[in-house]
């Protein structure tokens, strides 16, 4: 009959491992002698000394794809998604794949590493109905409902043909320039009719002084290599433009901001900043604001 006794592993402390490695590196002991003295397997010491195993707390298996902090963050985000509709949850499950959709072991590992996580989330979930009900009053206050949209202008548009008398030799003149060079203007309005500080994105690495001097002093100026909106430019505008305007005008938070669901508006940094500053960033279906956004109608 086969033995059912499980093999015991890690019958030594982390301190014993560190002391054994210290004596070996200081030349006070050989690997074999240190293994006998501190009860650490010789193979383990050899792997550490020769760099086959990275320094740090011991663990079994291959290197983890996610850090502990990232695992806990995913667990917390999944709980938050329970408050949202099926479409949002399914999109999150599709994005995370097996990590969130079917890997129950992942959840158990995270909860084991963070025992208070489950209790804390359950407590917050029960209090959400009472403490966050005031958030639904946002739609009743037009000053707290914001809508943002952007449009681009070509700096060197292509000219077309026109009908003119035969004797006219010069009807129009083509100007030399890059027909793909654009500037982008982002405007945000509140439902009460107020205009948030606008932003213009220029296709410059460094803004010329003439351009800066020609713009209104309170406008927010951005720059990108193409003149199109970029992730970092939009983040700077939300953090230093929209949020500052809300604070200066003493607008009650939280507020809701409707934007196009383009990928430039939906980064982790932007989402975390909005969450930490009581800005509910609501992404409309991408490339559809010309039909459903109040700024595009």
Automatic annotation (TrEMBL):
User: From which lineage does this chain's organism come?
Assistant: Eukaryota, Metazoa, Ecdysozoa, Arthropoda, Chelicerata
Under Gene Ontology molecular function, one entry of this record is: DNA binding
Q: Name one Pfam family in it.
A: HTH_psq
- InterPro entries with a match to the protein in the record: CenT-Element_Derived (IPR050863), DDE_SF_endonuclease_dom (IPR004875), Homeodomain-like_sf (IPR009057), HTH_Psq (IPR007889), RNaseH_sf (IPR036397)
GO CC, any one term: nucleus
Q: What does the record list as coiled-coil region(s)?
A: none
The name under which this protein is listed is HTH psq-type domain-containing protein
Instruction: Provide the species name.
Output: Oedothorax gibbosus
Compartments, as annotated in UniProt: Nucleus
Q: Which domain of life is it from?
A: Eukaryota
Record-annotated DDE-1 domain positions: 180-294
* Domain HTH psq-type: residue ranges: 14-54
Chief localization: nucleus
């Amino acid at each position: 009959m086969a033995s059912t006794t499980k093999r015991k592993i890690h019958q030594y402390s982390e301190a014993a491992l560190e002391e054994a490695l210290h004596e070996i590196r200081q030349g006070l002991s050989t690997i074999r002698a240190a293994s006998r003295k501190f009860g650490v397997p010789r193979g383990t010491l050899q792997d550490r000394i020769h760099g086959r195993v990275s320094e740090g707390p011991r663990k079994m298996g291959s290197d983890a794809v996610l850090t502990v902090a990232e695992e806990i963050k995913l667990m917390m985000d999944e709980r938050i998604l329970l408050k949202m509709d099926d479409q949002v949850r399914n999109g999150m499950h599709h994005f995370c794949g097996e990590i969130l959709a079917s890997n129950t072991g992942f959840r158990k590992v995270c909860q084991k590493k963070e025992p208070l996580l489950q209790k804390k989330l359950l407590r917050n979930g029960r209090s959400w109905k009472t403490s966050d009900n005031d958030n639904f009053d946002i739609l009743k206050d037009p000053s707290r409902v914001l809508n943002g949209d952007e449009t681009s202008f070509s700096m060197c548009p292509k000219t077309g043909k026109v009908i003119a008398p035969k004797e006219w030799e010069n009807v129009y003149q083509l100007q030399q320039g890059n027909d793909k060079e654009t500037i982008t203007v982002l405007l945000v309005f509140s439902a009460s009719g107020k205009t948030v500080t606008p932003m213009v994105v220029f296709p410059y690495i460094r803004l010329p002084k003439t351009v800066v001097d020609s713009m209104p002093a309170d406008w927010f100026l951005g720059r990108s290599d193409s003149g199109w909106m970029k992730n970092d430019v939009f983040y700077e505008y939300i953090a230093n433009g929209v949020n500052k305007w809300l604070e200066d005008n003493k607008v009650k938070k939280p507020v809701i901001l409707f934007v196009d669901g383009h990928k430039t508006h939906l980064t982790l940094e932007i989402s975390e900043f909005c969450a930490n500053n009581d800005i509910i960033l609501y992404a409309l279906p991408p490339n559809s604001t010309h039909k459903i956004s109040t700024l595009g109608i």
